[in-house]
Amino acid sequence: MNYKTDPEWGVTINKLSGGGVDHVLDIGGGTTLANSVDAARIGGHISLIGILGGFTAELMLPKLFTKQIRMTGLSVGSVEMQNAMVRSINISGIRPVIDRSFSLEELGAAFRYQETGKHFGKIVIAY
Questions:
Q1: Which InterPro entries does the entry link to (predicted)?
Q2: Band (37; pLDDT cuts 50, 70, 90)
């Protein structure tokens, strides 16, 4: 689901899945949490991974209680955890969406591009 073309993607996912999904991975925090709650099924789980969107989320406590959603906050782990994740990604075949690559010399331009919010997917710094 593309959050830029569907600002209410949580409702859309809920409808397309026939009542919500089991597990939502949310990396946006304040800017995406409401949609993540809408996308989750009753009894679903949201993994809140970081807070790229800041701490501005208004938790919809009544909806969290009604849907009996479990939420877990995750932060950056150890090197061993990172290596285990990379192994899992390699085995599963998951591939990230890469919007644009920059050389290390273009690091400033990469940050300016990120600030525009026009990217969809990852911004890569190649060295």
A1: Zinc_ADH-like
A2: very high
Helix (H), strand (E) at residue 98? strand 98-103
pLDDT in tens, 63-93: 888 899 998 887 777 789 889 988 998 999 8
Specify whether 57 is located in the same domain as 1: yes
Q: Residue 3 is part of which domain span?
A: 1-95
List the structure tokens of 106: 């273009």
State whether the Cα torsion 56-75-97-26 is positive or negative: negative
Residues 65 and 4 in one domain: yes
Domain count, the chain: 2
User: pLDDT tens across 4-14, in order?
Assistant: 889 999 999 99
As given in the structure block, the two tokens for residue 112 are 């300016």
The span from the CA of 97 to the CA of 118, in Å, is 14
Four-point Cα dihedral 33, 10, 90, 98, nearest 10: -90
Q: What is the pTM of this model?
A: 0.58
Residue pair 13/1 in contact (Cβ under 8 Å)? The answer is yes
